[in-house]
Structures are given as structure tokens and as C-alpha cells.
Queue: 4 jobs
Job 1
Amino acid sequence: MDEVTPMTSLPAVSESPPAASAWREWLEEHGPKLLLFARQQTRSHEDAKDIFQDALVKLVEKVRTGEFVGGQEAWQPYLYTAIRRLAIDLSRSVDRRKRREDNVVADAADIGYEAHHPWFESESSDDETREQLEVRLKELPEKFSEVIIMKIWGERTFAEIGETLGISQNTAASRYRYGLEALKKSLSNARRRGDLSI
Amino acid sequence: MKHDPSNLEEELRQLQAAPLDEALLARLEASADGTWTELTHEEVRFENFLRETSPAKLPADFLASLESVTAGVHFSVDEKVILFPNGNAAPKERRHRPIWAAAAAVALIGAASALLVPTADTPKTDSQASNRTTPPAIAAEAGNFVPTSFNRGLSEVHDEGVVWKSNNQPHRVVRVVYTEHVTLRDASGRTVEVEQPRVKYMLVPDKTD
């Protein structure tokens, strides 16, 4: 087999579109789910944007220098892994800083700021479902929510999720199942309490 | 008081490891036979409910900032392959056409587009492009051969079955065998014809009912 080429995008008979617009199209399509993952991995919208951008810079640099192994289909797995690693690094440095500063006021300000940056699209479902989903996902243990976000909105397979997280695909499937079950229970409770009318 | 180690060992030996609970046993069994990653109907239903809520779009200023990061970086698309639009845009009756017809159409359009390539241009690889210091026209004046025509002839198309890609979408693997035919000519009018057999494997989005 000399070439395997996934065919999921534009016809290429005519001239290639300008690079910037092709990237933009790609970012518009895949950026929301990558940013959602970054949001889950970090404490604030700003941190999420920073690490997403840093991850993209790493990818672009590798593509530019020809170091990147694989085609376009490998970009997303690379970005998920890069985002996670950058988030871990950021979290360590933030923890150190927080221990020094213990800046509670700043955190409170962050919480207020976050309200203006919902994780989900407001047009895609009614507001209460969207809000409840975000709240319940944030309440889940991180190891569950990261798998759920990668699987459902990132459309990653268990094998790919396992590779990103450094776990087996069976462990990824277990976390997904338990997380899904916990999320379902949590949403059902919200519905019973009247927070959610689905 | 000092414990007699042999007694303690005996006592410990009499303890039994707790048996595995039914859920863990089922999970281990499913992992062993490779079915643990398959979701139940109920799990898929809940998954679909969650999927109805989409991630928020990128803020415009952030998108512009990301785009600036990519400025000047080639967005690699294999220009020899005709890429299909998303499956949901395809009309339903297409599903009943034989797959080789789609592949043949791909090859024919490829061949037709190759004929439209300006004849003065030299097909080049990325590495050649980066090393080239003179344009093809200058090379021709120096007596080197330059391509004057380029053609592709389809010889075989095989359906190699279905594979599942990482996004859980089925793709049909199509093996296309074709021959590239290039005619080269130098400044004194001498021509050389080069034929190169090629094999390409293409992934064509498929549907499952």
C-alpha cells in the first residue's frame, strides 16, 4: 500500500484554496470541541484559550518544518495530547503560585467571568439543559469528564482516548461507562429537583 | 509480648482473598473477549441525547488569533485525490451504485484534470520544490527535458472491504491501479516518454443501515 488518503474534505481538482481560509475552515469545524476539552482540563476560559493556542502553535511548527508524522487525520489526536500535557504543566505552575499567593479574591472574580463563557452552544439546546450539563460535567471526577468530552464531542475512539491519556482502551471504556452513569444520575436528580425539565 | 512468626503465618494463610463481585467479573470477561468497548443500546441513547448539545463556537477574536498562528503554513491536502463531500450531503440513491463506479469517476476526473495542467509546468515534489533555484522554463533553455504532456490511465479498481475510522465512520477501501504517462521534450525537440504504474488506496465514506 503506497498511499492511504482519507477523503473527507474539499475536492482538489481546482487550485488549493488559500492556506489561511483552509485553516480557518478546519478551526471552525474542530476548534469548538478542542476548546471544550481545554476548558475541561483547565480552571478558566482564558487558560483554556492559552493552552489551545500553544498546542496549535506546536502543531503548526511541526507541520511547517515537516517534522509532523502523519496527515491531517493525525492533527486532532496530537492536539488532544498536547492540550492535556500543557494543562497539566499549567496546573502545576498555578498550584505553586496559588500556594504562595492564596488569592481567593481572584478566584471569585474568575467564577463571575466564567459565567459569560458557556461550554456549550446556546442555540443547540435549551438553556437549562445546556447549563445543567455544564454544571454536572464540572461536578464529575475529572477522569470521567475528560473521557466523556473526548468521546462524545471530540468523536474520539476508546483507543485514541487511551493513547491521549496513557491508559488502555478498556480503562477508557470503564471510565466512560461510570462517568456516563454518574452524569445520568446527576441529571436525573436535577430533573427531580426541578432544575431540569427534560 | 513477642509474636511467634510461624503462628502468625498460619493465621494469615487461613484468610481468604475476597471473591470478585459479579460486576467486576463481567467487566473482566468483556475486556478479555474485546466487547467491553461496545456500548449498550441505552448508553448509545444517552450519548445521542448529550450530543444534541454542541460545544460553544470559538469567539471571533480567538479564531482570528488562532488563524494568525497558521499564517503562511501550507494546509496539506493531497491534490491527486478527489475528496468526497460529507456523507449527509450525498443523495440517497448514490448508495445503490457499485463502489467501483465512484472510484472510476475519481480516476477519470483525476485524468481529466491532469490534461488541463499547463504543459510548461514541471510536476514536482515538495523536496524538489524547496531545492529548485531556477524555474522550469530556464531549465528547458539549458537543454534539459521538460514535461509537455501528462496522462493517467485507469487499469483496475478493486473493492477491498470496509474499515472503521477513528471517528466511528465506516469507509470502503478502494484499490485503484493506474498508469501515469509523461512525455518530456528538450530544447532540440527530442522527446522521451515515461510510463509509471501506480497503486493508490482510497478511503471512501460508506453508509451502514
Job 2
Amino acid sequence: MSVGNLASPVPIIQLCYVRLAVSQPQAAATFATEVLGLEHVPNKLEPFLYRSDARYHTLCLSAGAAKPSIGIEINNESDLDQAAKALARAGFSAREATSDECAQRFVRRALIVVDTTGNEIDLVLRPALSGRRYFPSRDAGVTGLQSVGLRSRAIEDDLKLWTILGAAVTDRAGEITYLGIDQKHHRVVLYPSDRAGLVYVSYGVESMDAVMQNNYFVQERQIKIVQGPGREPTSGQIFLRFAGPEGYVFSYSYGLKDIAPRHRPRQFTLEASSLCEWGSECTDVTELQPARAG
Amino acid sequence: MIELRDLSYVRMGTSNLEEAESFSTKCLGLQIGEQSGKALYLRSDDRAHTLCYFEGDPADQTVGFEVDDDTKLNAAAAALDQLGHPVHAGTPTECALRKVKTFIGFSDPTGNRIELVVRPERSGKRYFASRDAGITGFSHVGLHTTDPARDEKFWTTVCNARVSDRIGDIALMRVNAIHHTIALAPGRGPGIHHVNHQVESNDDVLRSYYHLSDQRVPIVFGPGRHPTSGARFLYFQGPDGMVFEYSVGVDEIEDEETHRPRQFGFEPSSLCMWGAKSIRPR
């Protein structure tokens, strides 16, 4: 998956999961299967665990968690130790997860890091895969967890964390910063904000047809479309962002471009057409509005 | 048999030429080819015109098809006459108004005004759109029918149209490799159901969806995708209630000899596989 062997150090392998703190997990659970279309994973530790691809899980709805977090896989033990030291030197707080916490995350080891803004990022080793193929609960065409948008109060400081981990800035629109960790245009996007949290959780789908079918699917269920259908000129992806439970936003996307070998980060102007070339606009989430993303 | 080669133009009366001009250029995005006080000629590709609005009754609508030459035109006139369709031979003035060498006019069994034309004019100047809608050309028309089976028979036996697919009893018919050039649509009387222009890409369909929505142009169907032709589409309403369509990605029928029309059920998913619902009044 990684093409990052050229630059060193690149300990990051992939974005593996999202853990969402929810107060009413049952309602969120219904959304996960009936709207998102993910597959529920029966297990003894986490009652609200979901698959979207070959991985054991990519979404966990946690009633106990205080805030959402994302899981990032690190190549191996020594890379993780090295990352821990480098992050400590740069002043980021990080702690080793307990064995219970690792079990709940279905990983062998985890370092729980907090960025300057206050977003929790789990650096994990050996996240679990499943031997059984993914079987969705509805035909939404989901191919897998694809990317997340993170709120950032201090883009430059938060960027430092990602740079230590070997992520690369692929493009910027205003101060919105797209970060690549593998061959895809981005896996993490930092959005200027005044608070911590997730802007959206994005699941890849298999075609433009799937994005558009999901567009009418969520419309018919009176689910609020936050933005789209639209197309990002930076990444090329066609997207549909819609409201999930408890203020979370989910996205379906198709057509996320691969990054060219000699790609240099481009600066896009801060205007609506840099965020959607088709002309969709977002009225609810300030981070997705050009006026805010300065 | 009358051999239709291609669509040539649509002519429509309008009660308000200024409004038609504004819509055609600011919304639809066509190029004004020629303009007089009483008529507006619009281009969508390398032809001199593919749409003409003239001062008159909005119900006065005509579709022009190109035939090979005068010999074929005369044979068509004789055949139609024999079948009892009154045929009108275009006068030189009428030919000039249509930018064609010769033409005949008649009505199909529903009463749609059809013209067969010889040598429609092309333009040496390339098409330059009035807005960046990505239009690549005028491509097909939807025609109302009061009796789908009877009209299908007319277009496929008197003319050379072939059925590509059917939705219920509604035939989508081709006259060349393009999936359909004539789409029949149930109606109470004669008239054009919609006028289609092809655009370059999916992006153009969606860009226009947002652009036209901003312009407060009523979107009556879409963005969507037809499972029959595979085209991504957007239908929207212009002056006098006429519906226009942008689409991209219409299949070509490659195996002319062996193609069998597919039968789709008469239900919404046969019209749009994405789940869009038409809101146009019937």
C-alpha cells in the first residue's frame, strides 16, 4: 500500500478506523447499518462495531469514549518507538494504551496521541483483518473507509505531528490542508476551526452511480445533505456529505485520485469552486465554507 | 422506406422572443447564429442552426430530419401521399427560413409536424458557446404520442427507425448508431416532449444542475442516469414550458444486425437508475 519508501521516515501505513463517541449508540447503530450500509461485527468487547472492507472493523460507536479518535497503522514496533520519541521531543502528549484499550481497538499495541488542537490519534500496530469477506447490510457500494476531515485550531502545529509521522501535504485550498500517507491524494484533511473534532468520515464507493444512488437514497429518508453531490478539484473525488447521528457528518466518495510521483503541493484559491467544482455549497458546517477556511 | 439520416433542427413558436433568447444563451448556453426581428437561430455544433425560435404560437413545433437527396425526398413525398399523409412541399422562402435546399412537411399519426430536409446548411465558423455548458451538439427529441404502438409502427415501417429499447410500450428508436434519436412519450396530443443536447462529461451535467438551480430554472428530472441508454441526464424547463435535456454517455448500438430491443418495466427505475423522480406535469 505504501509508496513512501523514497522519503524517510515513513512509519504510517494506513488510516484504519474511526471511533466515534456517542451518547445514544442504538440510534447511531441503526444509522450505521440502515443508512451507511456497513456490516455489524458481532464480538464480545464492542457492541457497536462495523466493517466496510476486508478489515475487522473501520467504525466503532463508543458510548464510553469522551471524544472521537482515529486509528493510524504504524509499520512496526521500532517505527512506533521512534515515532513516540520524536513526538515527545516535539511536545505532543502521548501515552501507551492499556491492554484493554488495545483489545477494544482490535490492535496489538497503541500509542494514544493528542494533537495541538486536541484531536485524539491512535498510532497502532497490527490492526485486525477478517478472514471473511465484507458483506454490506445494504447495496450502498461501499469499498472501504477512505479518509477523514479533522478540525484544527492550529494548522501549522497539527501539521508538525503529521509530518513527524511521514504524512505529506498534497494540496491546500486556502489553509485547508490535504495530507497523503499512501498513493492516494489524501487520507486526512485538516480544516481550520475553533475546536477539535471530525469534520467528516468518508467511505469510498465503487462508482459515480453509487454516489448518486446514495444521494437519492438519503434524500428519500429526509437525511440532511450537508454538501453535494459535488466534486473536489484538488482530489478529483465525487462526494456526498450528509448528516449522521449526534452531529457527525459522513461522506460517500468516488474517484479519489492517485498522487503523481512528482506531485508538488498546489495552492488553490480560497473560494467555493476550490472546494466543489460543480457548484455545490455547504450551509451547515462552517469548516466546509470558503469564508471560514482562511 | 423513408431513410432518415440524422436529426436536423427543431422549430418552435414563442410568444416572447426576448425571453427565448435570454434562456437560450444564459441558461441553455447555445450560440446565436442569426437573429432577425421575428426569428432566432441557435447553434449547438457545426451546423448553421439546430434550434429556431420564431414569433408565433408556442404550440407550433416542428422537427426536421435530414434525408440524402431530392430523389429520396420525392420518393418520401410519394410514399407519404399514398399512405394518406398530406404532404407540403417547401417554397423557396420557407426553405430559406430553414436554411435548407429543399424540404417537405407532413404530420405523423399523432399529429407531430415533421419536415424532411435536403442539404441543411453547415457553418464554416466553429461553434462557440455563450456559456460553458459543455454542449457538443443537438442529439435527439422526445415526441408525444397518443398511441405508442401505432406511432412505433409508423416510424419503423414507413421510416427507417429501429427500436433500441422499450420502457413499457414506449419505444426508444434510432436512425443511426446512436441509441436513440426519437423517443416516444405518452401525451394527450402532438408536441415535442423534450429537446436533447449532448454535453462533454458527467461534470457538465452536474455543473449545469447547480448553475441552472442558481438561475432558478425549474429542474424537472435529474441529475439521473437512464438504464436504457446509459446516459447521465438533467431535464429542465425553458420558455413556454418546453423541456430541455443535457446528457452524456449515450450508448452506441454496435451490432446493428443482431441487436434486440430490451424490455424495461414501466416504472421509475426504468427511467432513472439513480433514483431521481420526474416532477414534470403530465
Job 3
Amino acid sequence: MTTLLVTHSACLNHLTPAGHPERPDRLRAIERALEGERFQNLARVEAPAASLETIALCHPMDYVTAIRDATPQNGLAQLDADTSMSPGSFEAALRAAGGAVFAVDEVIAGKARNAFVATRPPGHHTEIARPMGFCLFNNAAVAARHAQKEHGIARAAVIDFDVHHGNGSQDIFWSDATVMYGSTHQMPLYPGTGAKNERGEHDTIVNAPLRPGDGGVKFREAFESVILPRLRDFAPELIVISAGFDAHMRDPLANLNLLESDFEWGTRKLMEVADKYAQGRVVSVLEGGYDLQGLANSAAAHVAALMQG
Amino acid sequence: MADNDHADVVRLPFERAIEELESIVKRLEEGKVPLEESVLIYERGEALKRRCEELLRLAEARVEKITLDSSGKPIGTEPLDVK
């Protein structure tokens, strides 16, 4: 069965201030990396826009409409020190969430084995009602909740290997026993959350912080000793990956030293769990990754692993 | 990318360095640092930590030198090569 690649050109129209690391070229770099011969069997589809009601599965409708209403007619509207909107941002955000939701639909319907959703803005910092850290809607969280509501998935897992902790996903699922959120990330670093003792109301939040300078060995240890055992115990029926590639050694925004092969390894490990418990269902959603070469090569390694199934 | 941005740190006295380091730790823990600046602030914290550790190492060596050289009474604080 095929691997789905979900993108949309509207995601290039979410503009950020000059010099901002979360920029349209990130998607162009990934797109170029996935043009090669070994990716010719990807099923490429355009991301539909999510409905506001679907996004409201994770965020209050007042928040969703406030983001819509914050969209500037021209120029940029600054939402916090890191996060801004341009005239094209709202559509991009709807398609980023919608792409993840569509990927869930296709994978659960059995039309694709798994999927990579290459869209922006990213999502995992968006809390229940607060945009932050380049993020407007929590795409991965919306996808997981949609799978539960529309497809009867009893237990979904969101596994996040972005170098920053997904405070937003943790916030959204803190009291939810039906979703496991697991994260490897650098500490100390933005946003300051993600300590081991942050476990959620039902012990379904699993944080495995790494130290600055850590590389593939420590990352794999954290996966093997913390994330994967807890994931197997949880026995998810769907795995959503918050796939940030900023733990790569080239990335300018953090100090971990992962290589392409580490992302490939992590992807394969998550697929093994999905094969055992979730009929292989994996939906991977792009988060961060700010060195274009590191991002493109890592995303390519990640997608190649998804295709190898 | 910030390798040369903390040149001033190597001249900071201990009190100033530890004060700034504490402030950085507090800001990182409270999540009040923008994402884009977070890594730069962390790296400055690392430079400050190294400066504090260096000053402590020098101070320890000086104390040790006094202890070793005194035969009952301190004889001064002559510089000691601790490399």
C-alpha cells in the first residue's frame, strides 16, 4: 500500500518577518528533496481546508474565529514575539490542519498505509486557546481528535520528536486518558515545559527530555527506554507523529546532534509499534526544522522509511 | 552561530556572571523566552556557566596554595598555574 504526501501551495503564502526561521522555503526544500526517483511512488494530494468545527475539536470556537479575525488585509499581524500572520496565513493554517485530518481519513479508510503531511504553519506549540512558537492551530492534535470522533479510534498516540517540547499538545491532552502524548526534546530550551515529572492527569503524558549536545545515541536510548515501552503499553490504534527535524545537528535553533539516520530509525520504530497495534496506521505531520539542508534530508529519510513499510 | 557573541563573558566578575546566569535559568524555566532567541540565550548561559566554573576553579586553587604553603600561618596569595 502507498504512502501519501499531503501538501498545498497555499502553505507557501503564510509569510513571516524577514529573516524569520519558519519560512516558506522550508516547504520548497522538502518538496525538492521528495522529487527524486525513489519517491516516485508517493501518492501526492493537495491538502483540503479543515472546517472550523473540526479545528474546534481541540480549540474553543472563539479562539478559532479570533485567529481568523486577526488575519491582516496586508502586511503582518504579530500575535506574540515569535508568531505572526500574513494575509495568506489563515488559509495556510486551515490547510495544515485539514491536510492532517484528510491523511487520517485516507489512512483509516485503508486507501494509504501511512502519510506525511508537509504543510505550515506548524502546530505543536498551540495550546488550547493560545497561539505561540510559530503555531496557530495544533494540527497533530486536531488529527488525533478527529480520528477519535469520526472513526471511533479509542486510543490515539501523538509522538513528537521535534527538538522543542510540544507544550500545546501536552496542554490539550493533559486530562485526556484516551490520547498518549510522548515527546523527546532538548531541555533547557523553549518553551520550558516537558520535564519528566509532567505526566498528565492519567499518566498518559510521557516526556523524555534530552540534554544540549546529546546525539543519536541518547535519542535512541530515550526512545527505547521511555517512549516505545510506554507506547506499546498504551497500544494505540493510530500513531500521529509530530515530525520536527530541528534536532538535526545542523539546526540553528537548538543544540542536539541528530542525523538523518536517527530520524529514519525513530520512524521505523514507531512503524513497528503501529504494525503491531494500529494496523500500521501512521500519520506524520511536519512541525519544525530550520536548516534547509538538514530539514530536507531528514524529511526525505523519514518519508523513505514510511514508504519502506 | 553564537560562538563569538559572548566575548564579554570572559571578563565578567563572578558576581555579575552568576547573577546573569540565574536570570537566564529563571527565564528559560518560566518559558518567557521567544522560541527564536531561546537557543542564543541558552548558549550565553553556557558561556556564563563556564566563566563561573573557571573563576571557582581558580579560587579553589588559590585556597589550596595557601593551605599547602603555610606552616601554620598563611603566607599570601601568590598566583598558581592551575592548567
Job 4
Amino acid sequence: MKTHRFMSKITFSLCVLLALILFLKGPGYAQEDVAKFPSRPITFIIPIPPGGASDASCRLISKEAEKFLGQPIVCVNKPGGSFAIAIAAIASSNPDGYTIGYAGHPGLFVTPLTGKVPYHPVKDLKQIMQFGYLNIAVTLKGDSPFKKFEDIVAYARQNPKKLTYGSAGVGSFGHLSMEEIARREKVQFTHIPFKGSPETQAALLGGHILLATGDFNYSQLEAGEIRLLFLIAEERSPEYPKAPILKDLGYDIPAPTFLNVAGPKGLHEGIVKKLEDAFTKAMKEPAFVKGMKDLRLTIAYRNNKEMDDYVARNFEAFSKLLKEIGLIK
Amino acid sequence: MDVLQHLIMGFSVALTLNNLLFCFIGVFIGTLIGVLPGIGPVATISLLLPVTFGMNPVTSIIMLAGIYYGAQYGGSTTSILVNIPGEASSIITCLDGYKMARQGRAGPALGIAAFGSFIGGTASIVGLMLLAPILARAALKFGPPEYFSLMLFGLTMVTYLCTGSVAKGLIMAVGGIALSTIGQDPVSGITRFTLGSITLMDGIGLVPAAMGIFGVGEVLTNIEESIKQEVFSAKLSGLFPTVKDWLDCKWPIVRGTLFGFFLGILPGAGVVIPTFMSYAVEKRLSKHPEKFGKGAIEGVAGPETANNAATGGSMVTLLSLGIPPNVGMAILLGAFIIHGIQPGPLLLTKHPQLFWGTIASMYIGNVMLVVLNLPMIGIWVKLLKVPYNILFPLILLFCFLGVYSLNNNIYEILIMVGFGVFGYLMRKFGFEGAPFLLAMVLGPMLEIAFRQSLLYGDPFIFFKRPISGVLLVISFILLITPLFPKIFRKRKELAEASKD
């Protein structure tokens, strides 16, 4: 039936044409009035798989910030590449304020220096604010004979390469801090990299490593199974006020373990202000404060200008640090 | 008995109307997303976490745990019906399950998968209940050298996964290991073979690769033959496993439970390895190994039991130590934390209601799942009657959506399609996917464990530690036993030759 075949040919061509038009035109985002922002849901990109404390904290603050923005915030996980995939997505998105996310420290200070990423962590991002700090600690078994950090250094001096410590991988802050300490004290630790904090903690409990770095299980801490030696942080943690931080031990090693909100460069001032306001107000909400307390995470604040400076400074500091440790040339 | 008292208390918590309702919701959603390829319990639990914010902690955990082990029930459905693994833990079910479906035995396959899952799930909860603290401590004894020897043991099983030429199977295994090196070197952090792509920095994902080789590859192979020909041509014979099926499967189910439970406890081992091991062991111990790969029901019973038993095993580590042994448990841990509860040594004393209530609800959930899944078999089987030229675009669509839902990364779809073409070519030339995928899973773990162990400075560390040494000896024995019959035969021949 010739007419039948002819009709279906027309239909087919129309469909192809329609598909091409939609594909090429794409969803058009006209340049919006800042006053109207936001007029549709905002995407918040999280650079880690769902389920960790940091992921939970992002979802907590987004839930509270929704109230002040009047639009839902949809959290999307884009893990991979040590935060690079998520940060690349943020940096390359349309600077209209509808794509923001947690641009965490590995993707800003480590991955861009040790490898190639399609963005510059300082120039291609606009920081919006910081809302907290992660917990990166150095822990040891409860029954370990070491009592203070000085004991560790003394042991390492007398037994080179016998002090085994685990970390969540090469380039993690646990690794970088311990290596820098070893360099300054002129001792040798043995670094055993693991795939993540859970595996590191398991190895510590099993006695396969003497120290573990990274996140830890506070139920283990309360039960006395593990002990906090010190925190890799810039400020004391209100949860663990007795735990020394790097500065207390005499090392001024940068430890920007922040939880933040960032967007692509080129964001309009007005939009940055609106987002910053909403998230800042969200930080004071009781549900957020309680949530962070349950997660045992520290709440801390920097506004958008302070964060921009802070990130730029740390980028320089880490370029230097990584060269000193020998991770980059 | 103390345990009995606690269990009764647990049931009193779990049998409230609210908790029963949410248990049902959880296992129902779990089954659904288990059936859908790609999207899995991890993504679902993270989506539903905000919903549980206002809820009672016990109820939330009951629901979320239900999603997790419910998914292990549903995962086998698509593996059997259309050769697409619904979950990574159902990859190996594709091998014999799909063949059974093509022979008209989809019903028995689905049935034995459901029953095996029930037995494996329930038995592992009993194990969890009685042995959790001891097992958790024992699992901690596994350090890098022990993991290496365990992975090596797993790799020796690769040859048992081959239905065809062993040489080709080994080539695939080596290929799998080679491809698994793509990504970041675990010890030095240098990226290998990533061609500058940040997606490849974490290596090739198991799920895109498996869905490509099995799902997309199968579709490509099928549409090459004429679409008019029925893909599922055999007449449907019965909806449930026969008595003979049950008798054949009783030992595979027992062994699957043991494998799944004990291997599920080890942090980092994952739920995939127990299924592959179960299959390989069943094939090795079977009286008719040549049937494997052509529709042997033991090849479905063992692995499906194992993956459900592994959920109980992984909860041992999570609840006793507070350490999540795999990604699914990590997100469940997140759920605990959000409700202000940190699992660990103090969980039993601080929150006994939560612990025993969850355990009791897991028993109830498993029963609900069996009741839910069995009648669905009739519906699923009807799906096969859909003409293939309508079915396969839908299959492809679900594959694409499923892979994207994993990490919201469009490049993983490209990876899947690439593996689909690879899978098609593999079938053309008689190579198999199972050894390749097993090697892809074991390769990275083998390498990292090996290199971590060497960092201790002693190259003989693998032999000096008891668990590691024993595993190595067993692997060695397994490798050379196939040679013994040959050796005996040779000696007989020589003896006879010298008599003349």
C-alpha cells in the first residue's frame, strides 16, 4: 500500500525533525531577573555517594534553606574522581544560581594539583558560604600503649617505618598531614592506604595498623575501643574539646576540612546574596543544629568573600605542601 | 534463654501496626527497585531518607532495611527473564536463570530464587542474632594479607565458571583484571589508562559493565537474528519448582547460605563475591557440571540464596562494630546516624529495642517477601509473551535509565553501550562474560590487598599469618587437583607399558 508507506515516511521524518529541534534548542534559560530568583527548584550537587555524615549534613542544610528560598532544593549525588566530577559539574553549569553544591577540599586542593581536571578550583568557582567542618581525626586502639602524640613520634624515631597508619587513600588529608609531620620531624611513617574510612577503622580494630586517620565511629569512642589522638582541624571541636588539634601540637599545617556551598563563577551578586542569606539563616535553624550535633559535626561559618579568600589561600598553601611531600613535582 | 526473651521483646516491637505497615512498604519498594535494573537500594534509601526524618527511629530502620534485603529478592527477576542483572548480586543468576527461561522454565527459576532467598535471608538473621559479636571480632582478624589470599582463592574459582573452553575463560579473566587497572593506582595515586577522563578515574563500574555485557549484549545478539523468531519459544512448563528441583537444590541452598553469610561479614568483600563463589562451588561439586550454563537450577538456587544470606552477614558488621562492610550498609548507617543512633559495641545496651525490633522485623519481612513474590511469578512470566520487537526497546530504555540512576553520570551509559558491543562480539566468538566480570570485581581488591601487604615490608607475610596461609594452601590444592586424574592415568599407562 503505497499511501501507507508514504504516510509513515512523513511521520518518521517529522519525528526526526522534532527530535532535532528539541535537541538543538535545548531547555532555554533566559537571563532572569535577579528579583525573581529562585523561580524553580535548585539542584544541589553532592560529591560523595549517599549515606555518609557529610552527605547527611548537606541534605540537612538544604532542607532548612528551602524554607527561606521558597523553592525546593533537590540533592543529587555525583560521586567520583575524588570530588572532581561533582565540582566539574558545578563549575561548568549555567551561572544562573540553579546549580550549586558542596565543593569539598579534595576536589579543590588535591585532585587539581595531582591530575588534570577541567576546571580551576579558584578561578572557576564562586564560593557562597561555609557551614561546618568535617571530622578528620587520628585515632588509635583503646588499649594502645601510646598516650600522647609525642610518644608516636618518639617510637617512629627509634623504629623507622614501623609506625603504620591507615588513611582513606593517597592524597587524603590524613595522608597529607601525617606525611608533612613526618617530614618536619624527620621520621618515617609507613602509610597504608585504604579505600575509605570504614575499611581503615576495621583495620585499626583488627590490629593491622597502629593509627587510623579519617572519620571514626563515636560509639566505638564512647565504648573505649578507640581513642582520639588528635584532630586534623583548624579549630577545636565542641564535641571533643579535649582533643588537641594540629596547632596545639605545634604544626601549622593547613586543614581546610570545610563543608561549604559553592556555585560557578559569574554568578550575579544579587543571586549570591540571596543564596548566602538563605543558607546562613538555615544554619541557625534548630533542626539543623540538632542534626549536626547528632552527626557530631562542627558548625562553622564563613561568608562568601571570606570563603573566596580562604580557598585561594589554601590553594597556594597546598601547592607548596604537595611539592614538599613529593606528591607533585 | 536470654536470646529468646530478647527476641520476644523484639517481636512485640515489630508487630505493632505501624511497624508492620512500614515493613511491608519497605520490602515492597525494595522488590520493585530490585527488579528495575540499575537503580538499587542505595539510591532508593538515600531518596527516602528525608521522608524518615520525622519518623520514629525504629520504624525508619525497619522500612529502610526492608528496602535493602527486599532488593535482593527482586534482583533475580530481570536476570532470569531478560538476562539483565537487576542488581550486581544477581549477575551470576543470568547464566542459568535466563537459559531456564528460554527453555520455558522461568516459573521454576523464579520460584527457587524466591524460596532460596527466603531461606538464605532467614538463616542469616538467625546467625546475626546468635553470633553477631563473635563473628564481628573474627572478621576483624582479616587484614590486607588475608584479603589477598581470599581474593586469590576466589580467582582460582574462575575456571569453574567456564562452560565452554577453559582457555577462553582464562583469557577473559586476564582481560577483566587488565581492565580493572583503569583508574587510580591505590598506593601511589597516579591515574592509569584514564585517557584524561575524570569518570574513568574511579575505574569502570561493575554495574555498567555487567548490564552492558549481559543486557545490552543479549539484545544486540537477539535482534541480529530475525525479530520475527520468538526468543522465548519453548512452551511454559509449570509455574513452580518440581519436587525433583527441590531435591537437587537442597545442598546448593545450604552452601549458598553459608557462603553468603560468612563472606557478607567481611568489610569490603561486597555482596557480589559470595554469588560467584556459590556458583563456582556448585558447579565443582555437581554430579553433572556440564549442565551448568545451560539451565541448571542449582546455578540459580545457590547464588540467590547467597546474596540474601549476605545481607544478614553484612548487618553483623554494621550493628556490632558500626562499620559498614559495603555501600548499601553505609547508607543504612547514614540512616541510623541521622536518627541520632550510632551502631557499634554500645548498640545492644543503649538501644535494645532497636536491635531486636529490627531483627524481628527482618524475619517478618522475609515472610512478606516470599508471599509477595510467589504470586508475582505468574505475572512476570506473562511478560515474556510480549513480542520481542516491543520488549527490547523497553529493555534498552530501562538499562539506560538504570545506569544513569547510579551516579547521575551520562558517560556511564556510554560505557554500558561499549560493553554491550563487546558482549555481542564475545558471544559471536564463544567467549563468556562471567569470568570477565568476576575478574573485574576481584582484580582491584587483589591488587590493593597485595600492595598494602607489601608495605609492611615482608614479602612472605602471606605465609606467616595463619588465616592467609591456610587460604593460600587451599587455593593451591584447588588449582592442582584437576591434574591428579591425569597424573594417575599417566602413571597407570606407564606402569602398563613397563609390564610388557
